[in-house]
Design a protein that fits this description.
The chain has one helix at about 55-60, and strands at about 10-20, 25-30, 40-45, 50, 65-70, 75-80, 80-85, 90-95. A six-stranded mixed β-sheet has the order 3-4-1-2-8-7. It has a two-stranded antiparallel ribbon with strand order 5-6. The radius of gyration is 13 Å and the shape is globular. With about 100 residues, the protein is mainly beta.
Length: about 100
Amino acid sequence: MTAAKVKAGQYYRLGIKGSEGCAGYKYHFSVTPFKTDQDQVLQFPQCTILVDAKSWAYLENCAVDLEKTMMQEKLVIQNPGAKSVCGCGESFEMVEK
């Protein structure tokens, strides 16, 4: 996922959407000025990431890295709860609980 620039008073929002992508779930990434009481707040020196309560169940043990190359900046998500990941890295299938 390509990283967007965040302005003052804005947050990154990371979530998932079901029944999308080639593996069943798809990561959703956006920039928002809105934070709710139900959001999980992940504070980092460079930014703040918000995760809605529904997505948190699928993302709580993930590692999120910002990968920088000469061509782009992108988020790379390592999800230990994923059974399989699509080649694009944006969609995944969850391990049944």
